[in-house]
Amino acid sequence: MSTYEILTGFDRNPITERDHRELPAPAKASIIIVNYNGLSYLSNCLHSVQATCDDDVEIIIVDNNSTDGSAEQLVREFPDIWLIRSDENIGFGSGNNIGTRQASGEYVVFLNPDTVVTPGWLDPLIRVFEEDPEVGIATSKILLLREPDQINTCGNNVHISGITICRGLRLDKKAMSAQANVGAASGCAFVMRRDLFWELGGYDDDFFLYMEDTDLSWRAQLAGFRCVYVPDSVVYHDYALRFGPEKTYYQERNRYLMLLKNLHWRTLLLLMPVLLLAELVTWGFVIVREQKHLMHKPRAFWYVIRRWRSIMAKRQEVQELRKGRDRDLLVHCTTSLEYDQTGPGPAAWFAGKFIDPLFSLWYHFIGVFAGW
Q1: Phi, psi at 164, each rounded to 5°
Q2: Mind listing the pLDDT tens digit for each residue in 58-82?
Q3: Of the four listed, 67, 75, 79, 357, which is most buried by Cβ atoms within 10 Å?
């Protein structure tokens, strides 16, 4: 089991629990940033956050056993920021869970370390909760840091197979100017009420990396809340599509976990043609683009088989919290996989021309069958 210590600025004595009596009052919001070897990003991110936030906002950094000196740099450069150091890399979701356990804010703000925030970015996110109690998650307009006139994502689209896609990638920054309900928040920058976060069980520790934001968004929606995109909150993100050696494995494994945990068996049965077609697409992607990692798909299947009992236990927890119906998730799903986001080419053209219509046809059939 991972252990961690909390360092308060230059006071480097490890403590096991945070003493909130050190604060004059609970914070309005707690910003949680999980760092893993983010030395080249963190300073710019934190300077932008400190310059745009009031005194009633606290900043908590969770360091996942970085080896690049970023944790030591944080202690030197930002002595007033809470730094929590884990003795191993416990992943994005678990790191955020640890940070949130130490948070005092009414709201928890999840922010990637490779971001730069703009003046006034936080207030619109919090305002939507105060105006509408049905909002469960609020997410920012995220622009590309290196191409600031273009969108990275405005919330995320969720395909009916569970695959998650950037919403509005590379559109002009002025596009998507209206607040909207979205399929999922982007883990890059979003806000929740702290009590709702824990009511839902926080992030799923088993995910480690990728899809944990979509899973949390789905659980919030099943509990009767909405995921809202807030265009007045603008954050820049140093995003580039990368496929590391484990990315396909984690994305596919976690997609299976999310589907099994959240959807009724009847829905999964109705979606079976969609899920089988998605397997064809993802296998095709691995064969065309990820030949070195052909075993990632079988590894993902094997993980589900091996951990079936624990997955079913988590499924039971999710189902006990549900207040909404599966169709409340599916009506916000898309039938287009936007294949160009992984790179243009004949395969992407063919899939968009011939496979997406099949997804759409079955989606409309399910809608008629379920009485949407």
Answers
A1: -105, 140
A2: 999 999 999 999 999 999 999 889 9
A3: 75
Look-up: residue for tokens 């909405």? 226
Average pLDDT on 202-209 reads: 96
Tokens of 223: 């509990």
* Whole-number pLDDT of residue 320: 95
Position 243 pLDDT exceeds 70 = no
Whole domain around residue 139: which residue ranges? 4-237
**For the chain, what is the domain count?**
2
Pair 358, 271: CB distance under 8 Å: no
Same domain, 202 and 269: no
64: Cα separation from own chain's centroid? 17
Task: Please indicate, yes or no, whether residues 214 and 259 belong to a single structural domain of this protein.
Answer: no
pLDDT of residue 35: 97
Instruction: Tally the residues of the chain.
Output: 372
For residue 21, which amino acid is it?
R
Check residue 4 and give its pLDDT. 54
Contacts of 168 (CB under 8 A, 6+ apart): 151, 153, 154, 175, 176
Task: Dump the DSSP string for 163-228.
Answer: -EEESSTTSBTTSS-S-EE-SB--TTEEEEEHHHHHHTTSS-GGG-SSSHHHHHHHHHHHTT-EEE
Q: Which is more confidently placed, 243 or 103?
A: 103
Of 347, 363, 211, 208, nearest in space to 275 by CA: 363
| Residue pair 290/248 in contact by the 8 Å Cβ criterion | yes
Residues 226 and 252 in one domain: no
Residue 43 shares a structural domain with residue 184: yes
